[in-house]
């Protein structure tokens, strides 16, 4: 948790690497994932950088892998999961072998695919020919055979002469079924009705040899007379992409041709089967190594992309790179560079220098699987400025607690606990789910948040004594009934005075007797409204106090007196005083006292009292009661209001006047990042952090005003003062959402119980049991869908707003940029999410 208090110290480093060791050194840095490189070739075109050839080579390898992966998925082969054994980046010799293997595999796959398409095309043509021959058997009658057979009665007469003498010619083929009607109309038009078309739809679809999609076709025979009409029909068939096949007019010749076609189809089917088996064996062999190859190529490409960020020195014998490194990880980086040089046997070691700079470093907060979800909530608002206090540390507790205040129900909290606990306990298995969808990834990423929200909701549910809108009598009610049986039965409602009907205080939470009270909502409204204001003021006070942490760290000690003191006084003297009066009212008034002025009936309204305090007004009290809770209250309230009003000009003018009288006249140093002493780090040596130091007053969460005109300083401070004063009032009222959503959640839960489940509980007999079963299912569905999902999401968003706006605005600027290290793990995880 100590790492989350504020972001890591960062150092800007310069590394010098020998070209032969550059690949392995960057590979080692990618495995560690603790270095963010800077681009030293901003003005160089991406196609003119040193390693652009290697990047293109990796792109080509990726293309081949994608092609092979597509073919593997097409055959339904499952790729193995290698999350537990991720290979390292390949060395140059492995790259050559991998490239040759992929080239051979791709060529073989392309050849197999082309041969398969050719054989399937041949198979399709033979199948269509067989269908034509089989379906045209019914098109020809014995008389047509006698009429069409050119060898009968006119042995040596050609087809043209036969047609001239009155005999009919024909064309047979196959056409797509959706084009048949247009095809038939076109034949009618070009022949003026002199073509006789007979067709028959194929019952079974044929497969497209290229795509494998089913194709529905129709066999047709067009009878005509004349050579000119025959040429026209063939042109129409070509235009409609109809396949024409030879069809003998003789019945015996057709039978003989069908037998030959069937024999060729059987032979071709055998060849296709053997080709498929060979293809499957090749793909099954490749699929075992393909995931590893894909990861190796991605790592290799990332390495060369990173090397393109380096700059070559003038002697062309050294690569120079700049990077941001957390100071705690400098020994790790030094070791990675040494391991990279040793891997290639380089005799010249790599050097790492720390550079002094005034440039703002990136923000890096170390997180684990528990704190990562809370840190993501903060980063969604804005990445913290460098070394600024991190709200995520406190959000781990305040976020689920404020959520639970609005979601206080023991039953609904248990549902969240069970769901969150299931995800936490099964996270090793669930983390392997890659295609769960965006919603599932959000739920799984926030599994610890859901678990804590459920636990806190169970706690507040016990405080509210609320489980599915019902109460539990765990310790026995402290209210007693002093009426006899006749009085109770004869009166629809009875009043129970607290001075005679109570004995002691319920040990924990609300007394269950309030479940039966007619004034339950009035009591809970008052109770939860006051709790909302109390929690809200405490939350805001804590946020204002956190600004002291930033002022102290950035050595802006004057801001403690000029900003923090007036802000905390304004908040405490007005709204902190209102919270104090709530507790004082609870303690001072008692139902069992003999003094009328101290009875609950004389307790003044804290809200009315606060309004009168701000307006310097008085409200006449009831007879026998006091207007104020203690003797000197009017004087104390006037003093608090006057001091609070004095804090406004204090905030408005204090800081600008301080800047005016202490403004420095010396010019700022240029932010050009010069070497400090050109100190070289030996292996295992950790330097003193020098990055972004020297003038921390303008660092991180601070504002530098030395180069601003005084008019802008005054305007900026006026905006800040107006925003704080108005937001103090509006933010306090904003915390009333805790009361509103808690009341809405409780009422919805009660409505579901009374309007749904209670109907089933009132049924009797066998029909009642069946009805209760169905109604209970509906009640469970509505509970999960409305109260847990919808109300839970609503409470989550309202809690998020309270942290982003009401809490973090008091001290958090969020003007930084995230630390994005060169990490193979981050690259691979990012591509899996895409």
Automatic annotation (TrEMBL):
Q: Which residues form a coiled coil?
A: 95-122
Q: Does the keyword Transmembrane helix apply?
A: yes
Membrane topology type, per the record? Multi-pass membrane protein
Q: Does the keyword Transport apply?
A: yes
According to its UniProt record, what is one Pfam family this protein matches? V_ATPase_I
**Span list, region Disordered:** 686-706
Q: Which GO MF term does the entry hold, naming one?
A: proton-transporting ATPase activity, rotational mechanism
Name a GO CC annotation attached to this entry: plasma membrane
Report the principal subcellular site: membrane
Q: Where are the transmembrane segments?
A: 401-425, 445-464, 531-552, 564-587, 636-654, 769-790
| Family assignment from sequence similarity | Belongs to the V-ATPase 116 kDa subunit family.
Record's protein name: V-type proton ATPase subunit a
């Amino acid at each position: 948790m100590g790492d989350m208090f504020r972001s890591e110290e960062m150092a800007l480093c310069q590394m010098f690497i020998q070209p032969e060791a550059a690949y392995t050194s960057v590979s080692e840095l990618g495995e560690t994932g603790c270095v963010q490189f800077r681009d030293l070739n901003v003005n160089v075109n991406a196609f003119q950088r040193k390693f652009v050839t290697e990047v293109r080579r990796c792109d080509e390898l990726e293309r081949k892998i994608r092609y092979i992966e597509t073919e593997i998925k097409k055959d339904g082969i499952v790729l193995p999961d290698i999350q537990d054994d991720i290979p390292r980046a390949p060395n140059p010799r492995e790259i050559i072998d991998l490239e040759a293997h992929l080239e051979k595999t791709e060529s073989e796959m392309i050849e197999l695919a082309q041969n398969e398409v050719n054989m399937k095309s041949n198979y399709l043509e033979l199948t269509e020919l067989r269908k034509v021959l089989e379906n045209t058997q019914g098109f020809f009658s014995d008389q047509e055979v006698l009429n069409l057979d050119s060898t009968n009665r006119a042995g040596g007469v050609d087809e043209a002469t036969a047609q001239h003498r009155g005999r009919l010619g024909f064309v047979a083929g196959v056409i797509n079924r959706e084009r048949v009607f247009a095809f038939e109309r076109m034949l009618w038009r070009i022949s003026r009705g002199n073509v006789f078309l007979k067709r028959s739809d194929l019952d079974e679809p044929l497969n497209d040899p290229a795509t494998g999609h089913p194709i529905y076709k129709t066999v047709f025979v067009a009878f005509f007379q004349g050579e000119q009409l025959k040429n026209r029909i063939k042109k129409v068939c070509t235009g409609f992409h109809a396949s024409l096949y030879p069809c003998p007019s003789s019945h015996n010749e057709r039978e003989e041709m069908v037998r030959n076609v069937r024999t060729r189809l059987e032979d071709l089917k055998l060849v296709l089967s053997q080709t498929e088996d060979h293809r499957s064996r090749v793909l099954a062999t490749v699929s075992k190594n393909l995931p590893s190859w894909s990861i190796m190529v991605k790592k290799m490409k990332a390495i060369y992309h990173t090397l393109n960020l380096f700059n070559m020195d003038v002697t062309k014998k050294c690569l120079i790179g700049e990077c941001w490194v957390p100071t705690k990880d400098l020994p790790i980086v030094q070791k990675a560079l040494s391991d990279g040089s040793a891997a290639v046997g380089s005799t010249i070691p790599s050097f790492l220098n720390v550079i002094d700079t005034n440039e703002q470093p990136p923000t890096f907060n170390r997180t684990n699987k528990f704190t990562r979800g809370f840190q993501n909530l903060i980063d969604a608002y804005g990445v913290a400025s460098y070394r600024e206090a991190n709200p995520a540390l406190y959000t781990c507790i305040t976020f689920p607690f404020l959520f639970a205040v609005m979601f206080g129900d023991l039953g609904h909290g248990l549902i969240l606990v069970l769901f969150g606990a299931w995800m936490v306990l099964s996270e090793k298995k669930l983390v392997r789910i890659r295609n769960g969808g965006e919603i599932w990834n959000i739920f799984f990423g926030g599994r610890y948040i859901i678990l804590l929200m459920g636990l806190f909701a169970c706690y507040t549910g016990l405080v509210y004594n609320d489980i599915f809108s019902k109460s539990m009598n765990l310790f026995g009610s402290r209210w007693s009934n002093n009426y006899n049986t006749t009085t109770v039965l004869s009166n629809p409602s009875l009043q129970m005075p607290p001075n005679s009907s109570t004995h002691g205080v319920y040990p924990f939470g609300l007394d269950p007797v309030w479940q039966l009270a007619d004034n339950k909502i009035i009591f809970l409204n008052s109770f939860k409204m006051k709790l909302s204001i109390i929690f809200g003021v405490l939350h805001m006070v804590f946020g204002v106090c956190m600004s002291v942490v930033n002022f102290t760290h950035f050595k802006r000690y004057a801001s403690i007196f000029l900003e923090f003191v007036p802000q905390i006084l304004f908040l405490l003297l007005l709204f902190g005083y209102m919270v104090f009066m709530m507790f004082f009212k609870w303690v001072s008034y008692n139902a069992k006292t003999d003094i009328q002025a101290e009875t609950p009936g004389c307790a003044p309204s804290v809200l009315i009292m606060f309004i009168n305090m701000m307006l310097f007004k008085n409200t006449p009290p009831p007879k026998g009661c006091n207007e104020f809770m203690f003797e000197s209250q009017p004087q104390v309230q006037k003093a608090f209001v006057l001091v609070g009003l004095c804090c406004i000009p204090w905030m408005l003018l204090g800081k600008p006047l301080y800047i005016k009288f202490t403004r420095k006249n010396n010019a700022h140093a240029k932010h050009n990042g010069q070497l400090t002493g050109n100190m070289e780090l030996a292996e295992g040596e950790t330097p003193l952090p020098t990055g972004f130091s020297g003038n921390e007053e303008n660092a991180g969460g601070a504002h530098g005003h030395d180069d601003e005109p005084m008019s802008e300083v005054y305007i900026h401070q006026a905006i800040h003062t107006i925003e704080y004063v108005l937001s103090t009032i509006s933010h306090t009222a904003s915390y009333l959402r805790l009361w509103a959503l808690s009341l809405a959640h409780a009422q919805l839960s009660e409505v579901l119980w009374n309007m749904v489940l209670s109907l089933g509980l009132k049924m009797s007999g066998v029909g009642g049991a069946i009805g209760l079963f169905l109604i209970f299912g509906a009640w469970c569905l509505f509970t999960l869908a409305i109260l847990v999902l919808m109300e839970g999401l609503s409470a989550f968003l309202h809690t998020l707003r309270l942290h982003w706006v009401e809490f973090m605005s008091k001290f958090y600027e969020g003007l930084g940029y995230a630390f994005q290290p060169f990490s193979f793990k981050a690259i691979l995880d990012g591509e899996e999410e895409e």
